[in-house]
């Protein structure tokens, strides 16, 4: 691995202690997975969203899913861009090194950077249809998402947080983009599940992430792959995902409203 | 009438307040912003990390996550483990930080934290060794700034201390016959933290005035900064003064005295939080 001169160096290689405790832990996990009652595939985990919490960014949002996924996102309004042309949306996605359950992600490693670039491109795809870029010619809008803890459905949470942050920054948007993730366990006749937790996502045979503009009822991005079964299954998964997005929408709108009220109260004092 | 605007002439604006011995946000020159810390089991704990803490110093928010892994010790120090701090200033904490590899400020902060750990002997590396020459713990301490409003170093040191106090390492034994290591995830032990260093930062204005806990605006206007790190016995661990206006010995002594007082405040806060989360 090439030396990263900008960070302090530790040992060449290190392994998480969970590797050495493999035998005992895996038995437990399998027991848990099989013995636990199969969860309701349409159940949405509790969602906590709060906008307007960073002081240095124009708009910010924090989204936390019940499974433990925590995403913090900041957005900056239009700034002058060097190149002429229509407005551009620049997205960035970062994982904290302690976000994953297993080994610590090495920041700066090529694999990490690839994954982050992919996620950033996916974010952009999901957000662009929601933002009125036509209103900001020659400008660039920046969105930066940081994943603090990965408990499954990370990209979906990031999409919701990024849309909230943009709205909080006062950028003109057609609608909020709401993200929802689904996965299908490897069992032969299994059905798609909404908002998988991290162990479910890891063992899944197929994963899907959707981004929807609920008020306009338009899908802005669909990402996924795997061994999902016949096409009707995928269509059914899409419908399930769209329903999940619609159900999350009121929570996100409420958090925006509360942030605006807080800002008003602070400005009045 | 001279209209002095905060955005047009920030330095003049500040000078008028400093003449009255106070600051625009209402603080005195020696007063810290409200400090809050959330450790481990409280809200915003990172369950994927072995130890975590979130520290807010006014608006400055720093989160520290510690992950422990196993590695072979280095050839020249066979009985020492590793502690690897890594300070990250992502682009979301302030507009001036760009995404990409760590910039100058992040690198300087990482080096400062490494020096503090080494100089204060907060964690002795020999404690992290499990079997000399074969296996040792590596503590990756990732400190991420979520919101940058000045005084990054104080908040980072505090977050690191709080997170390390929260770390629970699984017990590791080396099987005599097979030579393989066995990890028992059920039995966890806390780290042996020998010293509790606390950092206090000052900004120097106009080569003469010292103000404690500068905000981002004050840091921009300052002519120099000083950071003093003390431990619980009132001893000096390190003085970090990267250039800037020169200080007389007397002024430095004042800083050290204030740092010692601050240490007591911070220690009380940490003890209170830890007591509230330990199960009775």
From TrEMBL, chain A:
Keywords from the named record: Cytoplasm, Exosome, Nucleus, RNA-binding, rRNA processing
InterPro entries according to UniProt: ExoRNase_PH_dom1, ExoRNase_PH_dom2_sf, PNPase/RNase_PH_dom_sf, Ribosomal_Su5_D2-typ_SF, RNase_PH
One cellular component (GO) term of this entry: nucleolus
Residue segments, region Disordered: 1-40
SUPFAM superfamilies, per database record: Ribonuclease PH domain 2-like, Ribosomal protein S5 domain 2-like
Compartmental location: Cytoplasm; Nucleus
One Pfam short name: RNase_PH
GO biological process per UniProt: nuclear mRNA surveillance; poly(A)-dependent snoRNA 3'-end processing; rRNA catabolic process; rRNA processing; U4 snRNA 3'-end processing
Molecular function per GO: RNA binding
Domain Exoribonuclease phosphorolytic per the UniProt entry, residue ranges: 44-172
Protein family per UniProt: Belongs to the RNase PH family.
Record's protein name: EXOS6 protein
Lineage, broadest ranks: Eukaryota, Metazoa, Chordata, Craniata, Vertebrata
TrEMBL record, chain B:
SUPFAM superfamilies registered for this protein in UniProt: Ribonuclease PH domain 2-like (SSF55666), Ribosomal protein S5 domain 2-like (SSF54211)
Domain of life: Eukaryota
Alphabetized InterPro entries for the sequence: ExoRNase_PH_dom1 (IPR001247), ExoRNase_PH_dom2 (IPR015847), ExoRNase_PH_dom2_sf (IPR036345), Exosome_comp_Rrp42_subfam (IPR050590), PNPase/RNase_PH_dom_sf (IPR027408), Ribosomal_Su5_D2-typ_SF (IPR020568), Rrp43 (IPR033196)
Exoribonuclease phosphorolytic domain ranges (all copies): 31-170, 197-260
Cellular component, GO, one term: cytoplasmic exosome (RNase complex)
GO biological process: exonucleolytic trimming to generate mature 3'-end of 5.8S rRNA from tricistronic rRNA transcript (SSU-rRNA, 5.8S rRNA, LSU-rRNA); nuclear mRNA surveillance; nuclear polyadenylation-dependent rRNA catabolic process; rRNA catabolic process; TRAMP-dependent tRNA surveillance pathway; U1 snRNA 3'-end processing; U4 snRNA 3'-end processing; U5 snRNA 3'-end processing
Keyword Cell inner membrane attributed: no
Pfam families the UniProt entry points to: RNase_PH, RNase_PH_C
Compartments in which it is found: Cytoplasm; Nucleus, Nucleolus
Keyword set, alphabetical order: Acetylation, Cytoplasm, Exosome, Nucleus, RNA-binding, rRNA processing
Main location group: cytoplasm
GO terms assigned for molecular function: mRNA 3'-UTR AU-rich region binding
Family the UniProt entry places it in: Belongs to the RNase PH family.
PANTHER family: EXOSOME COMPLEX COMPONENT RRP43, EXOSOME COMPLEX EXONUCLEASE RIBOSOMAL RNA PROCESSING PROTEIN
Record protein name field: Exosome complex component RRP43
């Amino acid at each position: 691995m090439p030396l990263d001169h900008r960070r302090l160096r530790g040992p060449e290689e290190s392994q998480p202690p969970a590797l050495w405790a493999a035998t005992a832990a895996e038995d437990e996990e399998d027991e848990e997975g099989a013995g636990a009652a199969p969860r309701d595939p349409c159940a949405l985990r509790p969602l906590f969203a709060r906008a307007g919490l960073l002081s240095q960014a124009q708009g910010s949002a924090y989204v936390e899913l019940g499974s433990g996924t925590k995403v913090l996102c900041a957005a900056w309004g239009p700034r002058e861009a060097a190149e002429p042309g229509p407005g551009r949306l620049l997205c960035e996605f970062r994982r904290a090194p302690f976000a994953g359950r297993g080994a610590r992600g090495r920041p700066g490693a090529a694999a990490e950077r690839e994954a982050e670039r992919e996620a950033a491109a996916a974010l952009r795809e999901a957000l662009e249809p929601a933002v009125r870029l036509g209103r900001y010619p020659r400008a660039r809008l920046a969105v930066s998402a940081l994943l603090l803890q990965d408990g499954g459905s990370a990209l979906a949470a990031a999409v919701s947080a990024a849309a909230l942050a943009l709205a909080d920054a006062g950028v003109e948007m057609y609608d909020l983009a709401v993200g929802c993730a689904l996965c299908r366990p490897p069992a032969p006749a299994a059905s798609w599940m909404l908002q998988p937790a991290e162990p479910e996502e890891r063992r899944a045979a197929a994963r899907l992430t959707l981004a929807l503009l609920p008020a306009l009822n338009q899908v802005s991005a669909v990402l996924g792959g795997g061994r999902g079964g016949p096409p009707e299954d995928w269509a059914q998964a899409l419908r399930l995902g769209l329903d999940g997005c619609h159900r999350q929408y009121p929570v996100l709108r409420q958090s925006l409203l509360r942030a605006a009220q807080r800002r008003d109260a602070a400005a009045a004092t | 009438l001279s209209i002095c605007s905060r955005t047009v002439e920030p330095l003049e604006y500040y000078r008028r307040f400093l003449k009255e011995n106070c600051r625009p946000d209402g603080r005195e020159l020696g007063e810290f912003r409200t400090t809050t810390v959330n450790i481990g089991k409280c809200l915003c704990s990172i369950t994927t990390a072995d130890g975590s803490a979130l520290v807010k110093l006014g608006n400055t928010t720093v989160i520290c996550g510690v992950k422990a892994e196993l590695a072979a010790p280095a050839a020249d120090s066979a009985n020492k483990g590793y502690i690897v701090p890594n300070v990250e200033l992502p682009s979301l904490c302030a507009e001036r930080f760009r995404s990409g590899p760590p910039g100058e400020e992040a690198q300087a902060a990482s080096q400062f934290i490494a020096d503090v750990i080494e100089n204060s002997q907060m964690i002795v590396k020999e404690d992290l060794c499990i079997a000399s020459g074969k296996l040792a713990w590596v503590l990756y301490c990732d400190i991420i700034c979520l919101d940058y409003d000045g005084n990054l170093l104080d908040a980072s040191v505090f977050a690191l201390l709080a997170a390390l106090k929260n770390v629970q390492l699984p017990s590791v034994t080396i099987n005599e016959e097979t030579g393989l290591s066995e990890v028992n995830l059920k039995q966890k032990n806390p780290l042996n933290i020998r010293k509790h260093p606390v950092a206090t930062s000052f900004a120097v204005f106009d080569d003469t005035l010292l103000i404690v806990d500068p905000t981002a605006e004050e840091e921009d206007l300052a002519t120099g900064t000083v950071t003093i790190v003390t431990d619980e016995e009132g001893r000096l661990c390190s003085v970090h003064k990267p250039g800037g206006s020169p200080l007389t010995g007397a002024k430095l002594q004042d800083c050290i005295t204030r740092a010692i007082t601050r240490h007591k405040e911070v220690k009380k806060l940490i003890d209170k939080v830890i007591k509230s989360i330990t199960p009775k």
